[in-house]
Amino acid sequence: MKFLEVHELSKHFALKKGFLSRSKGTVKAVRSVSFQVEAGESYGIVGESGSGKTTLGRTILRLITPTSGKIFFNGVNLCELDPEMLRRLRRDMQMIFQDPHSALNPRKTIIKSVGEPLVIHEHMRGRALRQRVQDLMEIVGLKKEHMYRFPHELSGGQKQRVGIARALALNPKMLILDEPTSALDVSVQAQTLNFLEALQGKLALTYLFISHNLSVIRYVCDRVAVMYLGRIVEEAEVNELFDMPLHPYTRALLSSVPLPQARQPDTKILLEGDIPSPVNIPAGCCFHTRCSEKIGPICTTQEPEAVSFSSNHRVLCHLRR
Amino acid sequence: MNTEPSILEVKDLKIHFDTFEGTAQVLDGCSFTLGRGDTLGLVGETGCGKSITAKAILGLLPVPPTRIVSGEIRFHSRDLLDLSEKDLEKIRGNQIAMIFQDPMTYLNPVFSIENQMIDVIRGHARHANKTVSRGAAREKAISLLNAVNIPNPRQRIGDFPHEFSGGMRQRVLIAMALAGDPEILIADEPTTALDVTIQAQILRLIGELVERFRHSVLLISHDLGVVAAVCRRIAVMYAGNIVELTTIERIFENPAHPYTRGLLRSIPNLARRKENLVGITGSIPDFIEPPRGCRFHPRCAHRMDVCQKVKPVLADIESEHRVACFLYESSWPSASRPEERIKPLP
Fold first, then answer.
1. How many domains does chain B divide into?
2. Terminal Cα distance for chain A, rounded
3. In whole angstroms, what is the distance from residue A308 CA to residue A315 CA?
4. Sign of torsion, CA A312 A313 A315 A321?
5. Record: contact B269-A259, CB cut-off 8 A
6. What ipTM was estimated for this complex?
7. Which of A12, A165, B11, B75 could make an S-S bridge to A136, C-beta 3.0–4.6 Å?
8. A98-119 burial, b for 16+ CB within 10 Å, e for fewer?
């Protein structure tokens, strides 16, 4: 039994216009996505804006109801649970958001924010609550006196740690981290990434790490999925993906990142144009409009199927069949 | 330090903001020069004063709360800080142009690109005491859009900003910045709002334009990779000071200031397998009561007594390598001492 298994998950949003809500089309945010995550693993999802990575994360938590597909969490299909069961299972899955400033209520002290899940789920109060929050603050490396402060009195990195403390309050098994360091400066980002890694070892957590930053993904994750227009176009073990990318999109993406070094490699693959709209997804392979390695009409007419390259490396491309 | 004559020289610029809590000393004596065809990157984390420096050059900081305490910004030997608003207007866009971070906020959503560009082109002409007809301005706008690689500019010029994608909008903004044929381009985080594949396109475009028109560029970014892709020289800023000023090669091969070293060790590198990131402990200081002496000393692993009392000046340790740190005191008096004299960090 896999820890997390996502099977052909899709999420479409209806685009509505006017007060009669006539449908104008559908935004296909996530299209038939399948992957599995082992317990204790860091699984990375990387993609550009509009690739569907955030929708995927939220759908797995059932913050958004999927259009079709199955999500097995420890063997239980989350899509078939009634609300009460789901609420109980949610304790095992928590989310950490991108912007620590807007994820915390500015009018609540840190102890109120961090303690809220404990009050709701475990009916904790008084001294027990204070003690538990204090323990959590210690785990994330904050001081006891921070408990009685308001969010505006903390720095960005400290606020992100408060967000992590709140997510840890109910002893979750899995954390979904949606761009957890995008709002932070690099020196603070490095501290936060190291801390997240130590935390994973200490508490035996499973991470689903969503980011647009390829360098961060390489640093944190064990396996990585690359998303483009709602589909996973390539999935592999982290070093294999970065050292031997197979999908033309992955290769272009990797070569687009300006490297912090004096000599830039001169093998840049520049993609033409922009990512197409998820309302009008190109027929055939969704990447064909920007692909420089098209092999013929098959790319524009037939949707490619996943090809396994090795046990841990699959790619969605006609070129690799 | 620069063989080419400098066209822009910022000297000991100090800027304070008056706030309710006190005076924030946001820029604490910044000095650098920019030569013709030179590309300089200003790099630093949030709040280090890099955008403030750019805005000060163009006189875009609101007074009050801003107070320019001391310093000079010399552009062709005129001090921009002494100029009247009217004279500054002639320089803005015509001689020094700026590209901003978020293209949507700097384009007016209710006017077409055509109208906005024609306004800009005719406005620049007016400042140069010339008149340009709408038709001629439109033709110039189309050729500018062509120069920034917008497909079918003749058809697309009538479109509104929302009809363009983020990358295309940034191209329009660059075209507008080029409209006055400026000598200096200041780009403030020009690709931060864009995806990496689009960022790569824009960076290449900026590189091509610099090559073609020999603009001098001041590129402001928090991303060392972006600066490395465009610039020849780099200035690393920390809490209102330039702490290190050198070439791109030097900064990566032989970083000298402890902050620069910390910064480089904080960035995960895509091209390498996992190595340990170190980060820098602590966070940026308070600007109302900044640390005495070197502003980096509370976070510095090599802190000495002198660092807590005296502020280090930006001084040459080699040619084209200036550092503001007491660790290099021994190599201060002369710029051409052999490298062995630079005290190695443990």
1. 2
2. 30
3. 7
4. negative
5. yes
6. 0.82
7. A165
8. bebeebbeeeebbbbbbbebbe
Among A115, A110, A191, A101, residue whose Cα is nearest residue A146 = A110
Which domains occur in chain A, in start order? 4-92+172-275 (3.40.50.300)
Give pLDDT, residue B332: 62
Tokens of B149: 């690689």
Choose from B102, B195, B265, B280 for mutation: most chain A CBs within 10 A.
Answer: B195
Which pLDDT does position B245 carry in this prediction? 93
Closest-CA residue of chain B to A258:
B225
Q: Domain range for residue B98?
A: 6-238
**Is-contact A30 A9, C-beta < 8 A?**
yes
Average pLDDT value for residue range B222-228: 90
Same domain? For B79 and B30 the reply is yes
> Tens digits of per-residue pLDDT, B72-100?
899 888 888 888 888 888 888 888 998 88
pLDDT tens digits for range B95-122: 899 888 877 788 888 999 999 999 989 8
Q: What is the pLDDT of residue B335?
A: 43
My answer on whether B303 and B221 are in the same domain is no
Per-residue pLDDT at B4: 59
Asked whether residue B145 is assigned to any structural domain, the reply reads yes
Collapse the DSSP code of B158 into the 3-class scheme (helix H, G, I; strand E, B; otherwise coil) and give the result. coil
Q: Residues with Cβ < 8 Å from B186, sequence gap 6 or more?
A: B54, B57, B58, B96, B97, B98, B99, B217, B218, B220
Cα distance between residue A179 and residue B306, in whole Å: 41
Please tell me the distance in Å from A242's CA to the nearest CA on chain B.
8
Per DSSP, the three-state class of A186 is helix
pTM of the model: 0.84
Of B45, B224, B268, the CB nearest to A219: B268
